[in-house]
Specification:
It contains five helices and no strands. It is mainly alpha-helical.
Length: 148
């Protein structure tokens, strides 16, 4: 168990396909700031979609195990393993927290009222808030763009 969300690594690492990097570099070298901005915004939205989907899947799984506590942040491994449902709730909140962080940085929220991203020492209420935010964003996305 780690503090970094498992499903968010590809987005927070900003991995680009070769043609994405080449296209951005070519546009930059040509002085096409508009094209660079558009491509970066598109990549940011793809990352956000990945975070949102991972957050709601983990949240749905966690909800199946009921409500309860989370692991502290930062978490230190011990010889006694944490219960699986606590790890699942913690993972769900960690990914939802990364979604909140992404939306604050890129202005990509569809519902507004973005909770604070999770930091060391966050409370269970903070974790509940980011999970509720991810659910609200997902519901809004489904209502606006059914079938996506």
């Amino acid at each position: 168990m780690q503090d970094a969300p498992r499903g968010a690594a590809t987005c927070t690492g900003f991995h680009l396909k070769g043609w994405d990097r080449q296209g951005i570099a070519t546009a930059h070298n040509a002085g096409r700031r508009d094209v660079v901005d558009a491509q970066v915004a598109s990549i940011a939205m793809e990352c956000r979609d990945d975070l949102l989907e991972a957050a709601v899947v983990l949240d749905a799984l966690a909800l199946c195990h009921g409500h309860g506590s989370y692991l502290p942040r930062p978490y230190q491994e011990t010889s006694t393993p944490a219960p699986a449902e606590v790890e699942l709730r913690t993972d769900a909140s960690n990914v939802a927290g990364e979604l909140a962080r992404h939306d604050q940085q890129h202005g990509t929220s569809t519902t507004g009222d973005i909770p604070a991203p999770l930091e060391d020492g966050c409370t269970d209420s903070d974790r509940d808030a980011v999970r509720a935010y991810a659910r609200r964003e997902w519901i809004t996305r489904q209502e606006r763009w059914p079938g996506i």
